[in-house]
Design brief:
With 352 residues, the protein is an alpha+beta fold. The chain contains eleven helices and twelve strands. The termini are far apart.
């Protein structure tokens, strides 16, 4: 028993300081069903423990390699706050990590999230985490745990931040590194669902800044805000199935840095990618953003995916089979261009 507590004076609790432990416990109960819906056979524990146990089945790998990634949603969250719409950003969170795993040919195994806020609203948090669970189901991975941090005075009212962590598995002999890319290979692009989770600081500047149309402006079948909150497309299942059918020499997740910065990350020094500027249908949303901000073509392709969320580099003889398979899986593939020889000090990506 502490002798420092004076029972004659008012006592201060953690809840008085802004942290409600009971609310955190309620949240765990609220999300249990969503988390359980993502369960894989390898998961040995439920939520609520100090750690999560996962026993991977390595029988399909001669030389198993674990791949790990982490990412967030960025300032797209600001739009979710303004629109009070929290059911899709969890999908974004999962997508940004599992699509990165996919670039190396890895199957996502499990995912963990970090949800931080100033004052915990259990309904909002449960909605966000239900979106995370949906993203995990789309990717075929298990949501095995996470952290909910209530930090008074650290975030604005009704604001939160998200981070995600994914681990995947691939056989060392099947890791896709890009080293097999060679001149003559064909570059295929998969349609995005919108800006995904990149470029939203610029988006907010042109949409919400002086003279901007605002989130309530009509766009398509809804509002501009609704279009901008369309969740990031998860490419895991179609691409993993493709890897079993055709050789894929390289893959790229088009995130921050767009075409110019992401494609070179997988190219050998002797190769460049030549992309035809009219090879795909750029969605109207990107035309609107470019017009609102008078953004240059180069800046558009560095900031946004401009309608292409994922790229595959395949041998010329595999193009037809690859495109047919991807279409059968519900994707919209485009033949963007080809790989060419790159001169010393030449540009790795050229647009024609």
């Amino acid at each position: 028993m502490s002798m420092l507590h004076d029972e004659t004076k008012p006592s201060i609790t953690y809840k008085d300081a802004g942290v409600d432990i009971d609310a955190g416990n309620r949240l765990v109960r609220m999300i249990r069903a969503s988390v359980e819906s993502t369960r894989r056979p390898e998961v040995l524990t439920g939520i609520g423990g100090f750690g999560s146990l996962f026993a991977p089945d390595l029988s399909t790998c001669r030389n198993p390699v674990l791949v790990s990634t982490t990412d967030g949603v960025g300032t797209k969250l600001k739009l979710a706050f303004l629109m009070e719409k929290h059911d899709t950003v969890g999908i974004d969170l999962v997508a940004m990590s599992v699509n990165d795993l996919l670039v190396m040919g890895a199957q996502p195994l499990f995912f963990l999230d970090y949800f931080a806020t100033g004052k915990l609203d259990t309904d909002i948090a449960a909605t966000v985490i239900s979106g995370i669970a949906e993203g995990c189901r789309q990717a075929g991975c298990a949501l095995v745990g996470g952290e909910t941090a209530e930090m008074p005075d650290f975030y604005g009212p009704n604001e939160y931040d998200l981070a995600g962590f994914a681990v995947g598995l691939v056989d060392r002999e099947q890791v896709v590194t890009g080293e097999l890319i060679r001149p003559g290979d064909v570059v295929l692009g998969l349609a995005s669902s919108g800006p995904h989770s990149n470029g939203y600081s610029l988006i907010r500047r042109v949409v919400l800044g002086a003279g901007g149309p605002g989130l309530d402006a009509p766009f398509g079948d809804g509002t501009l805000g609704e279009a901008l909150l369309t969740p990031t497309r998860i490419y895991v299942k179609p691409v993993l199935s493709l890897l079993k059918k055709v050789p894929v020499h390289g893959m790229v997740h088009i995130t921050g840095g767009g075409f110019w910065d992401n494609i070179p990350r997988v190219l050998p020094d002797s190769c460049r990618v030549a992309i035809q500027h009219d090879a795909w249908r750029r969605p109207a949303l990107f035309d609107l953003l470019q017009g609102l901000g008078n953004i240059s073509d180069h800046e558009m392709l560095r900031t946004f995916n401009c309608g292409i969320g994922f790229i595959l580099v395949v041998p010329r003889e595999a193009v037809r089979e690859a495109m047919e398979h991807l279409m059968a899986c519900g994707e919209t593939p485009f033949r963007l261009g080809e790989v060419e020889h790159r001169e010393e000090n030449g540009e790795p990506v050229v647009l024609r």
